Amino acid sequence: MLSPYRRCSSMIASPRASKPLQILFCGSDGFSIASLRALVEARRDAPTLIDSIDVVHRPAKPTGRGLKTLRELPIKQVAAEELKLPTHAIDTFTDWIPPVSINLVIAVSFGLLVPPRILDHAKYGGLNVHPSLLPDLRGPAPIEHAILKTREYTGVSIQTLHPNKFDRGTILAQTPAPGIAIPRSITASQLEQQLAKEGADMLVEVLKSRKFVPPLENAAWYASSKGPIHYAPKITKQDRFIDFSKATLDHVLAIQHALGDAWCILPNGDRLILHRVVDSGMADAEHHEPGLFFGPTAKEPMFRAACGRIGILMKSTYEGNKQGHGNAKLWRMLDSQDAYASQG
């Protein structure tokens, strides 16, 4: 099924013209790979649109015990082995000169700001695929924050690359209003896959319609929609922390969907990793303090959230102990007591 954007935009013709594109594609992960594959497909289908694609990625990083293993970014193998594209590994643009002729830079989930020197080298400047309805959720983690902030809708924005700042370019295309609905149960990985496909389709449509050719037209609608606008900073360990005296059950579930494992601090100061929590469907009728407890007939630990609703902890790990066996140790800790409040 075609995306809402594609259904609308595919019917719009553009009188603008451009030379065949010599693209310098800067990417890293699965989100950027979707756009790269779409460009390669567009090149096969419309050879007069795209002449060449060179891929820039960050170098392999040491990983594992003793940092003895080098781990390549996912895009390296896909670009070089699957798509048979020339690749270039760089950790900085300082003193780096594109080894081939280029006239358009496309950066998707790259992580480095493409400097003016490189953009000036390209006749048509640069483009970026950003998975949010800009200006909302500017920053490196828009998908996770869309779930954490319980946004009802999100989308994709195709913007030009600003020479000095991230996510400050002219928006050439944006998912039509109201956006793409975010189901409460969707995970960040699932939403990323959906937005990656949407973004790849939109990017190709922007190229086919030559919207990157001046004069540029701002296609942003969200900025005037009166919707919320927040920044989406890099995810940190603290974003996974749960203080049951402050967190609602919806927020606990949002952390799980957006970030995976959460964690809390037990009254004795030990850390508990929360692998899976579910909504019990019940409200607290016994006036427990916010925190973990065992009900009289419960098979798994329960918790009272700040909102008064009850969640069930299905699987956990007591830090420093066997993976996934935290509930058994919690049982021994809490068996003889009514409740323990988790604290920060």
From TrEMBL:
Coiled coil: none annotated. This is methionyl-tRNA formyltransferase. Keywords: Transferase. One of its GO terms (molecular function) is methionyl-tRNA formyltransferase activity. It comes from Clathrospora elynae. Pfam families: Formyl_trans_N. One of its GO terms (cellular component) is mitochondrion. Its EC number is 2.1.2.9. Residues 23-207 form the Formyl transferase N-terminal domain. Gene3D superfamilies: 3.40.50.12230.
